[in-house]
Amino acid sequence: MLALPEDPRTAAFKAVRSRLRNDPILKRVMGKFYNTEPEKWVMSELPVMIIGMKAGPIRVSSPQSHTNSIVVGVDYAVSAEGSNKETAWEDITNL
Known about the structure:
- There is one protein chain.
- The protein is an alpha+beta fold.
- It contains three helices and five strands.
- The chain has helices at residues 8-22, 24-29, 88-94, and strands at residues 32-34, 48-54, 58-62, 65-68, 71-77.
- Strand 3 (58-62) and strand 4 form a beta hairpin.
């Protein structure tokens, strides 16, 4: 890791990630948390949550000024195998 001072966006992302990972309900139901999408899904780990930074807009106001934003993506994957097909959507929506 490069020896750089922490950017406010990095600190904000870490705070969001920490809040989600430490949420008592999510800790109880999530099989695993990832920072990036895994190369291969392991069914036994489901449900999983992927918390990552997404590309955000950059606006140029002038040659000397621009604004940048942080976009945090929260994706998740669940297995509905063996679930009641009529009610499986409720767990997905509630997550």
